[in-house]
Structures are given as structure tokens and as C-alpha cells.
Design goal:
Elements (H helix, E strand, L loop, with lengths): L1 E4 L7 E7 L13 E8 L5 E4 L3 E5 L3 E8 L12 E2 L14 E10 L12 E10 L26
Parallel strand pairs: 1-9, 6-7
Antiparallel strand pairs: 2-6, 3-4, 3-8, 5-6, 8-9
Length: 154
């Protein structure tokens, strides 16, 4: 599962992910662009972008880097600059939480829905807030109280 950190109100964050999509790509490394698709499981909205830095390590893995911006900066997805904040600075469009990701191969640096035949890799990602909180449930939450009698009904 990929871990992606969101930017705060005052500073951007550079995220790097490690994937193995070079194992199945058919376009030469010198000519390929990787199109990333992140789809929120909560809102079903998708972000498309081309990572700004790609480093292939002899086919073992490919390191892709992109920058998550603050709400007041414009996004440039074709250059690897994205943001999870919508136009009003809120998270309704791209909320924190679970996302699916897909990586496509393409010969042009244009972001948008990828061609299914060019799909290289897919999986899950978790987008967390800038403070690093990755918990969905607070630490003080307990499913039950061990000292209280619990009744189970069929």
C-alpha cells in the first residue's frame, strides 16, 4: 500500500513512491511517461498526474516523485504538482483516506484518464493529513469494555 502525505496550509510536500511497473512496460524507458490515477474510495473522484521525477533502478523498482501543494497554489498535474484541496480549500472532492491507484504507460506527458490497455500497476494508497495522522479510529476507542458484562444476541 502506498502512503501519501498531504500538504499543510503553509508548506508543500514532496512524496516518493516505489513501484515495479517497469517490469511490464512495453515503451522504452527513455520515451515513457507514467500516468498516475488516484481515485478516492470516499468520493469516487479521481486525480490524474505525471510524476515530475522518475528514477529506474535496473528493473528492480522505479521511484516516482510528485509534489502535493498547499491550497493557495495552482496545480500543474502534467508536471507532477497536485493538490487534494478543492477550489474552495476543502477536502470534499479529494478527502483524506483510502484511494485506489493505477499507473499507465504513455508516450506523451498529458494527464487524464489512461488507456486500459496501457495499465502497468494498480493497488491501494492511503492519503494522510499533513500532521502525519494515519489512524482512522482514535487511540482511545475500544470496541468493548473488558470489565463490563457484554451480551451477545443471536
Amino acid at each position: 500500500m502506498l502512503q501519501i502525505q498531504n500538504a499543510s496550509d503553509s508548506s508543500f510536500v514532496i512524496n516518493s513512491i516505489y513501484v515495479t511497473c517497469a517490469d511490464v512496460q512495453t515503451i522504452a524507458q527513455a520515451s515513457v511517461y507514467y500516468l498516475m490515477e488516484l481515485t478516492s474510495l470516499g468520493s469516487q473522484n479521481s486525480l490524474y498526474f505525471i510524476p515530475h521525477t522518475v528514477v529506474a533502478n535496473n528493473g528492480r523498482y522505479t521511484k516516482m516523485s510528485f509534489t502535493v501543494l498547499t491550497p493557495n497554489l495552482p496545480a500543474y498535474p502534467n508536471q507532477g504538482f497536485i493538490k487534494f484541496y478543492d477550489d474552495t480549500g476543502k477536502y470534499d472532492t479529494y478527502p483524506m483516506g483510502f484511494y485506489t491507484y493505477k499507473i499507465f504507460q504513455t508516450t506523451s506527458p498529458v494527464s487524464g484518464p489512461g488507456n486500459p490497455s496501457d495499465l502497468l500497476e494498480e493497488g491501494m494508497a492511503y492519503v494522510r493529513d499533513y500532521a502525519g495522522n494515519m489512524e482512522e479510529v482514535t487511540p482511545d476507542f475500544n470496541e468493548y469494555t473488558p470489565t463490563t458484562e457484554q451480551f451477545i444476541y443471536p
